Amino acid sequence: MKIFTRYLKQDRARAILAPLFKMLEAAFELLIPLVMAGIINRGIGGGDRGYILRMGLLMIALGLIGLTCSVTAQFFSAKCAMRFGANLRRDLFSHIETLSYTEIDRLGSATLITRMTGDVNQMQTGVNLFLRLFMRSPFIVLGATFMAWQVDHRAGRVFLIALPILTVIVFTIMFVSIPLYKDVQGHTDRVLQKTRENLAGSRVIRAFGQEEREKEEFARETEVLTKRQLFVGRITSLLNPMTYVVINLSIAVIIWVGGKQVDLGILKQGEVYALVNYMSQILVELVKLANLIITETKAIACGKRVADVLSVTSSQQFPDEERGDLTPSDDAPAIEFNHVTFSYSGSGAPAIEDVSFRVERGETLGIIGGTGSGKSTLVNLIPRFYDATEGEILVEGIPVASYPKKKLRDMVGVVPQKAVLFAGSIAENLRLGNSEATDEELREALSVAQSDGFVSEKEGGLSYHLVQGAKNLSGGQKQRLTIARALVKKPKILILDDSSSALDYATDAALRVALREKLQDMTVVVVSQRTASIMHADKILVLDDGSPVGFGDHASLLSDCEVYREIYASQNQGEEVDAREAGK
Amino acid sequence: MPVKQESKATLKRVLAYIGRHKAAVLFSMLLALVSVASTLYAPVLVGRAIDCILSEGAVSFERIREILVQMAVVIAITAVSQLLMNLINNKITYTVVRDIRVDAFDHLLVLPLSYVDSRKQGDVVSRVVADVETFADGLLMGFTQLFSGVVTILVTLGFMLMISVPIALAVVVLTPVSLFVASFIARKTHRLFLAQAESCGEMTALVDEMVGEQKLVSAFSYEDRAKERFEAVNKTLEKDSMSATFYSSLVNPSTRFVNSLVYTTVAVIGALSVLGGGFTVGSLTAFCSYANQYTKPFNEISAVITELQNAIACAGRVFELIDEKPEEVRPDEKTLEDAQGEITFTDVDFSYVPDKELIKGLQLSVKPGMRVAIVGPTGSGKSTLINLLMRFYDPNAGSITVDGTDTTDLNRTSLRKSFGMVLQETWLKSGTIRENIAYGNPNAPDEEIRRAAKMSHADSFIRRLEHGYDTEIGDEGGLLSQGQKQLLCITRVMLDLPPMLILDEATSSIDTRTEIRIQRAFHKMMQGRTSFIVAHRLSTIREADIILVMKDGSIIEQGSHDELIEKQGFYADLFASQWKH
Questions:
Q1: Cα(B529)–Cα(B258) distance, integer angstroms
Q2: What is the C-alpha to C-alpha distance for residues A38 and A51, in angstroms, rounded to an integer?
Q3: CB 3.0–4.6 Å: which of A28, A407, A483, A537 could bond A364 by disulfide?
């Protein structure tokens, strides 16, 4: 709730003016039955044609004023709601940009995206409707009752009885059916999921001959859904008939009571009609009000979810930019791990445990291990995507926690496992980490990343447009561009996180050679499952289930490290064959 | 508006589905008629009652009582008929939805794989789920609303003409103005909504990238520039939404204003007519309430017509699915039992698309118990071979036999059940790990399940999960890594091993150490079983009895590893470039 008031306050004037004008419009609407009563009583009763015509003009004038008020109100509320949405979206976006990997893991990207788009839109619609209706509908409902009371107390009593009954009917049915509709939606989702699952698995299902069973399961799910739909349908079916009965019975009572009052000379014929009219006005607005409340409950739920995101703060604190007292010593190793242990938040077992090693500047470090052995986790600690749970990580002799965020991230170039590129030109993508890079620098990076060839073949070269998800590139091309993108930053440390998996052996080898020759000062960390990719590294770290089981160069690991030897053997039976062939 | 031939045909089929509920539909229409008539009769009664209330001392209570009793009856009739109509319509709608949906889904399972393969999954899903719903909702609701709308208009017109011809004509002439205003605004704002949809799409795309890949943004310190880009899109969106929302929100006040003009006209002419005689105050009030409501059914009908068009389009899409030809089932097909595993391909031609031939004149003969490895570059037809073996597709020419019987003479299910299949794509059902392993044999005892998991080296990771074998794996195996999913798929086949095996890159996501261990298990199992293995790892291939080297849809070389190396052909080249380092 607070989030609504906070953002509405930023546009206070419009937020107040919109409902105010809406109320004015409603007030004019409430006058119509009285004018009509006048026409019947004085115009017809008194035989005054001029009065009837004058009242006709008055009604048109009231309509016009109502129209003006209403248009003004719509303008203010639309403006206010859209401003509300834009401001909220902007703040939410900026906020999400400050979150660290830990929070993103916890919240999940998918959720963040729906909150930014769906939830904020829902809130925006809620605000718009709220500004338009929250004064109007109650105003007409209560106003009609009040006017009826003014016309005649006795007849007014009918309103005082009918109104609560109607309110109870409308709101009970609405509020009982909302959770039921949610339940129906849940079952629809299951039917949807079942269909999707069957399509994806059509080969396996047929291979196992399980078609009949899948049909039965689907029929069962559908039957449940149908039952729920019928149930909720039965409840909502009651709304119209019930309110109809209450309203029309009330009208009957009003006619009876009104008739008595006219008989006694307290009321006139026209006023009885006005009373009937007020009664009819109530129902329409009451239903609108109930709908408004449903929309608002949804909007409030969305507001809560958005507020939740806004209240999440980054678990990492970085020192301010422009810190001058960082003077890395020239002879400190590029990367140093001292007894580093790390567990993901929320999971008990550490992902990596007690890792210590050092890599000198310009050296290449290879990291190898099976799936889930903690390779990626380890390299993610170097640019401080996560904070080590225990131990210390130093980059050029300084603890990573002492670096300002941008400084550290600029020093470390990362090529992630998943080759993600943004929609836009190749050049725009390459400049992601360094907007100042010249075309010349881009070409250099491309050439090291073995991509100058295919890029120059693309129409427009560097300005070739990548569609969303870079679907107009092959997997290997995407991967090479992500490598070039990291190189454009001119990082001191380059991390290749299993990022040559889509490259063939020849390209992979050429890339390694180019990195070694052209960027001698750069420290390179290569993560891989393939021994071929890391066997030439200066140092190799072998991980098994999060623990370091070997550190050294290829030759020493082959003789000392059981795990390394096994991995190597599993991938290199070809060489044994080769040896055998050679021996023939 | 000319109705296309196609939609006419669709409409006929829709009516056939609804036809199953003919009695209910007719009853619902009758109820609609009754409820409309009685709803519209109420204002007439109110008017008559008001006519009895003339002035002080001139109120005829006897008459009023009589009218009020009539009113009570009318109210009761309206309420009961409305309620019944609602219930019946619900029943018809949801039953029709269920029937069509089950029909469509059942059909999916007998459609040839070529249908499933050639269509976007989301598209097919939306036909079965969303289209069916829109269609039934739109059609039945639309139908009843259209019917009661038309009836309302006609009956109101009738009542109005009965009361006063000139005023009725005035209403008839003025009403279209309101409709015109509404459609004018709608037309004008259409363009604005398009603009809004476009910038909304841009916003979603940007958020998708920048928030979806926030880790990347943060790794490259791209935050500030991302914010700038976002701000620009956000501004455009705000502006476009503002125009679309504001201008479209003018419909209500404008039509309300036009309606008030109609109302005023009725009031003034009516009041003057009362003075002129022959018209009562009660009739005037009845007229006013009609004038208030008369435009409503028009607006509803125009909305319903769009909905109906939409519904027919959706129905067309659903029927298109149901009309697809299923896999042919012959009455004389034989059941394959205890297959020995002798397989031959004779002169097999096959292509997925008619004018792009893929497999041509394929010859192959596999003896029982042989281990066959299939190698070759991507797109060379390795998986196609498997599609043909499993009869996911049938050859265009030539024949494939198992144990001497042409596979097209065999019952598909029995043929497929004779193969154990593990594919590179891992498919798991939502459910527990246990249910997934026991997919082919739901009654398998726990020891069997555990034994299979031990063989495939899945047992250790399963036991480490919080609920062990009872862990729910969620939508499409969400919680598990690709490698773990692959292990489960292997376990599923190991539980109940059929006489023949197909392994299509079955261990591609498993790390090499585990892979070797699994292979040992497979090795044991494959003894005496004919097996086909698509693989790219040399260790797997070398152990095969026969290696098929595929290129551009045909087998260009076959023989054992040593023979093929000797031959110095394509395989030897492949071997040199892929595995020798």
A1: 83
A2: 9
A3: A537
Contact B281, A45 (CB under 8 A): no
User: How do the pLDDT tens digits run along chain A, 584 residues long?
Assistant: 788 999 999 889 999 999 999 999 999 989 999 999 999 988 888 888 999 999 999 999 999 999 999 999 999 999 999 999 999 999 999 999 888 888 888 888 888 888 888 889 999 999 999 998 888 888 999 999 999 999 899 888 999 999 999 999 988 988 888 888 888 888 988 898 889 889 888 889 998 888 999 999 999 999 999 999 999 989 988 988 999 999 999 999 999 999 999 999 898 888 998 999 899 888 778 878 877 887 888 888 889 989 999 998 888 888 887 666 677 677 889 999 999 999 887 666 788 889 999 999 989 999 998 777 888 889 999 999 999 999 999 999 889 998 998 889 999 999 988 888 998 999 999 999 888 999 999 999 999 999 888 888 888 889 999 888 788 888 788 889 999 999 999 999 999 988 776 677 778 888 888 888 888 889 999 998 888 888 889 999 999 888 899 999 999 999 888 889 888 887 775 444 333 333 33
Rounded to a whole number, what is the distance in Å from the CA of B30 to chain A's nearest CA? Answer: 17
Give the count of Cβ contacts less than 8 A between chain A and B. Answer: 389
Do A90 and B231 count as a contact with CB atoms less than 8 A apart?
Answer: yes
Chain A residues whose beta carbon lies within 8 Å of the beta carbon of residue B68:
252, 255-256
pTM: 0.77
- For residue B59, the tally of other CB atoms under 10 A from its CB is 21
Structural contact between residues A447 and A410, judged by C-beta atoms closer than 8 angstroms: no
| Cβ atoms A555, A564 nearer than 8 A | no
- ipTM of model: 0.83
Q: Using an 8 Å Cβ cutoff, are B103 and B131 in contact?
A: no
Strand partners, A357: A337
Rounded to the nearest angstrom, the gap between the alpha carbon of residue B138 and the centroid of all alpha carbons in its chain is 16
> A43 contacts in B (CB within 8 Å)?
271, 275
- Could you tell me if B378 and B508 are in contact, meaning their C-beta atoms sit under 8 angstroms apart? no
Residue of B nearest to A467 (CA): B205
Question: Which of A177, A309, A371, A534 to mutate against chain B (most B CBs within 10 Å)?
Answer: A371
Nearest-angstrom CA–CA distance, B44 and B159? 9
From the CA of A418, how many Å to the nearest CA of chain B?
A: 10
CB B358 within 8 A of CB B352: yes
Query: Integer distance in angstroms from the first to the last C-alpha of chain B?
Result: 72
Contact B519, B540 (CB under 8 A): yes
Residue whose entry in the numeric block shows the structure tokens 């079965």: B128
φ, ψ at B408 (rounded to 5°):
-70, -10
Kindly identify which residue of chain A lies nearest to residue B483, measuring between CA atoms: A371
Amino acid in the structure at residue A338: N
* Window 131-190 of A, Cβ < 8 Å to B: 132, 188
Q: Which chain B positions have a beta carbon within 8 Å of A84's beta carbon?
A: none
The count of C-alpha atoms lying within 13 angstroms of the C-alpha of B486, restricted to the half-sphere facing its C-beta, is: 19
Interaxial angle between packed helices A49-98 and A269-311, expressed in degrees from 0 to 180 and rounded to the nearest 10: 10
DSSP for B486-523, written as a single string? HHHHHHHHHHT--SEEEEESTTTTS-HHHHHHHHHHHH
